Amino acid sequence: MTTDDVISRLATTDPAAFTTTDVVVWAFAVAAAVAMVVDPQWRRTSVVVTVAHELGHALGGVFAGRKLTALRVRLDASGVTHTRGKSSGFGMVVCAWAGYPAPAVAGLIAVLVAVQGWAAPALFVLAIVFAVCLLWARSAFTVLVLLACVAASAALWWWGSEVVQSGTAVGVGAFLVLGGFRAVIDTWRSRQWHRSRGESDAVALETLTRVPASVWLGSFWLATAACAGGAVWMLWATAVRALA
Question: Quick one: which of 178, 7, 170, 191 has its CA closest to 104?
Fold first, then answer.
């Protein structure tokens, strides 16, 4: 492996060069994403959404001035993020809120890099991000999941063709957006159970702000819907240009 090899694999793709083949690959990728957010597949694939959810908490907390101390993803696809700072206030609210919208935001970004031809450099950056996150992993399963994410991102970056890279970005983006919706739906359906156990981000936000948990759940819906709308619009507009 030489420097020229690395640089060549970081090259972007001209969006104007997308063809019918790319659109067909994207369509299959979206169909696969839909299949993965329904039972029984969801029980095996939801861990990917959990990773995005927990990284949302982590990034939200860090950007709001808190210190990240631990990331954990469990075998049952639940997770927890620990940050250090004041137990109340703006930073804690941002950290608590950022989890549920994070998968849809990540999905929107994935679709954006696909349609803009940035899939290759984005995969390279993503592999580095997952590798850095290993510093805060606090369980063997978390390390295993993050290593799998590093390996998948790096392999696609190094060996994947432009069509495969953009198709994967679209598929992962669609899955994260749909998975974000599924996570919010599941939380809404089990809100009373979560309230009794104190495990819902919406209930935690209600405790922090005295704003009803239903309002916070509504904000998760709106943020996820906005990301979904943006992803659909970008895919549609790019597909129309490619097929013209």
Answer: 178
- Which structure tokens are listed for 23? 């659109």
- Facing residues of 67 across strands? 84
CA 161, 104, 60, 70 torsion-angle sign: negative
36 in Cβ contact with 45 (< 8 Å): yes
Which strand (E) or helix (H) includes residue 140? Answer: helix 140-159
DSSP at 68 = E
Q: Is 85 exposed, middle or buried (0-12, 13-18, 19+ CB in 10 A)?
A: middle
| Model pLDDT for residues 66-120, shown as the tens digit of each residue | 999 999 999 888 899 999 988 888 999 999 999 999 999 999 999 999 999 999 9
The answer, yes or no, to whether residue 193 has pLDDT greater than 50, is no
Q: How much helix, strand and coil, in percent to the nearest 5, is found in the chain?
A: 75, 5, 20
| Structure token digits, residue 121 | 């450099």
Helix axes 201-209, 213-243, angle to 10 degrees: 130
For the stretch 107-141, pLDDT in tens is 999 999 999 999 999 999 999 999 999 999 999 99
- For residue 224, give Cα distances in angstroms to 101, 108, 147, 213, 230: 6, 10, 27, 17, 10
At 137, is the secondary structure helix, strand, or coil?
A: strand
Confidence of residue 2 (pLDDT cuts 50, 70, 90): confident
Measured CA distances, 45 to 40, 53, 81 (Å): 9, 13, 20
With CA atoms as reference, report the closest residue to 178 among 57, 34, 46, 78. Answer: 34
